[in-house]
Amino acid sequence: SFLFLFSAGCDQKTTGKKGPAIPAFTEKNAATMAQITYCSNPQEKLNTYLPQWKIVWNPKAINGNYAFAATDGNTWAIAIRGSVIDFSWDAFSNWIYHDFNIANQKKWIYADSTNDAYISEGAYEAFENMEKMKDSATGKSLWEFISTAVKDESKIVLTGHSLGGKLASVYA
Which among 13, 82, 86, 171 could bridge 162 via Cys, Cβ 3.0 to 4.6 Å? Predict the structure, then answer.
């Protein structure tokens, strides 16, 4: 199992402003959030294990892909679920279409530095599923939510397990 953690900014301890120190977002927090993405009620589990965090973007899963966004008021986290492990269409979709679909490559149009960037077709399809997800309360996509809610100086952490780790790096 792999965990991908991406954090914008260098100083994990403070905001750079005068005032009390902000606790760092730790690898343990990232792993806990990645694990919570598999739960049917992620806010309930956050309340138990990371009570300072509140889910602020929570869509329905699409073809087994699922993510949520949460904040502690200072840092934003996007937690992305890995492959579903049960006997279901979602699990089949994750494993066959997203995890193992690596032979075919798709042009990655979001690369800043090159026109020759490619990702696996499976990662591309799972990314597109993430783009289709809409928050249950607001109807906003993840990108719409981030663009309006997260300020430029805020820290954003992306985390996920397995397929979720792959999608965290793709989404970052």
Answer: 82
Q: How far apart are the first and last CA of the chain?
A: 19
Q: Determine the pLDDT at residue 23.
A: 60
The pLDDT assigned to 113 comes to 76
The pTM score is 0.82
Q: Would you give the distance in Å from CA 42 to the centre of its chain?
A: 13
Q: What is the CA radius of gyration of the chain?
A: 16
Looking at residue 156, its amino acid is: I
Q: In this structure, is the dihedral angle defined by the CA atoms of residues 84, 89, 94 and 99, taken in order, positive or negative? A: positive
Cα 97 to Cα 104, 132, 163, 166, 172: the distances in Å are 11, 17, 11, 14, 21
> Are the C-beta atoms of residues 4 and 158 closer than 8 Å to each other?
yes
AA letter at 157: V
Q: Are 135 and 58 in contact (CB under 8 A)?
A: yes
